[in-house]
């Protein structure tokens, strides 16, 4: 009990209650305060119960608390067997009733919160049957049950999402990464657009590429439609072949059989199908319905904890033990006629089981036969596709095998060539990827170097110059210009590049000065940061030492406070004991005999005398039982012998009756023969 109270006090001192109780203050709470405390805990589990109990009647408070405890599946401990006593203790705020309830609630607060939340939506409202006769009420009830099932499914999905490990931080990181990739792709598209805009007739080329993509998509859709039509044609041919095969089998059955055999076969099929329809399938359907009903009941009930499962297992074991005892009693008390009936029942059950097993075997054989027929149809279809509708024999088969061997060698040779070409293609593709990666890396490195040198766009300018020069050369070739004009254009371009370099030279010098200044500021910032870190470390160490001292003083204060309360309790107990001792001495010394009888010594003396008298009587009774034990056992043995003797006489009498009956039957049979 002390551990239980200590656990309650610890939980109440934590979030979200923050009561600041100790063992003494909690133990000194009055009944109304205890009830309010219990109501606060229930209000934390279910916010609907966060009310002031002084504003409602005690019966209403007890009814409300009992209803919530019933929903939470609380069971009173073993020492409270009477529900009315538990209800009365809950109304009056009795400590032996309230303390176990608080301990049970505070042990599993999160689980009970979830159960109370689910109970608001899953506790089914019981509608009377006469109200369900109304169509409107029945429709609303059905809609209510469907909404309840939808809530169950949504709650399960929510729990699965909570336990799946997905977090908003990871989703945000993925979104940011995708946005960065999107920005990079947009930049690449813009760069490609700028490069394409310089090409002649780029709009016409883009339109042609778009038309090509549309035609490829149309080609893929047409190929998919063609494949679907081929599959439909193949399935239709299979159905036709199956129908032809069935027709052929029916023709053979009609030709080779007689009407009597056909009727017999049909009767067997009718008997088998009627057995399936009338006995087997309804029984299986009933079993499925029962299992579905029990599963629905299990799903409709709120979530069960491990303690509830343990209680159910104990009940199941008790019921099984009771059933076994009843079966044993019945087997011990059966009569001969019942034994004959039981024998017939066993034979009937064995025959029914054999019948079910044979029916299942027959059904499995039919399924196997249908599967083999489907395989045979597939094999025949494959043979038709390979243009081999007839089985080859003799020289034709040898010729066919030689042809297959030659085709196999040719196939292997071509496959090796394809493998070599595929390997070479993979190597070339990998080489192309590596060269592209290297080119991109060089481009990025060149761009970073240009940014560092302060001449960003130089490589792009150079590419533009090269492109301009290439365009110029093409135009020169087309127009037949001379090499002198090309050299002059190159000289002009070189002059332009020199001018650009000359104009960028002062900017580069200024950039160098700024870099040097940036290095000096960075060095100064590092020194200041080192000083700040050392100062912060010193302050942090001082703060930690002060926190430790404060913590030690608080612990010492709490220890002294607990010692103070303990000494006060011991002092109070000693005062009570001293008072009782004074009252006992006063009653013992008092000349009044009535006062002396109230003394504890006199009471214990009377009790000792009563127990001594009782022990004396029990010893005398034990002595009498020991003296009569031997004769009683002999008498029991004699009665058992008499019972065995009577049983033997009864068996002899029954045997004699059976023998006389058999002799009479034999004599009557002999007389009948003589008469004949």
From TrEMBL:
Q: Which residues form a coiled coil?
A: 137-246, 309-382, 483-563
Name this protein carries in UniProt? Intraflagellar transport protein 81 homolog
Tell me the GO BP annotations in alphabetical order: cell differentiation; cilium assembly; intraciliary transport; spermatogenesis
What residues form the membrane-spanning segments?
A: none
- List UniProt keywords, sorted A-Z: Acetylation, Cell projection, Cilium, Cilium biogenesis/degradation, Coiled coil, Cytoplasm, Cytoskeleton, Differentiation, Phosphoprotein, Spermatogenesis
The record's GO CC annotations read: ciliary basal body; intraciliary transport particle B
InterPro entries cross-referenced by the UniProt entry: IFT81, IFT81_CH, IFT81_N_sf
Protein source organism: Uria aalge (Common mure)
Identify the Pfam families for this entry.
IFT81_CH
Q: Which family does it belong to?
A: Belongs to the IFT81 family.
Localization, UniProt: Cytoplasm, Cytoskeleton, Cilium basal body
| Cited function | Component of the intraflagellar transport (IFT) complex B: together with IFT74, forms a tubulin-binding module that specifically mediates transport of tubulin within the cilium. Binds tubulin via its CH (calponin-homology)-like region. Required for ciliogenesis. Required for proper regulation of SHH signaling. Plays an important role during spermatogenesis by modulating the assembly and elongation of the sperm flagella.
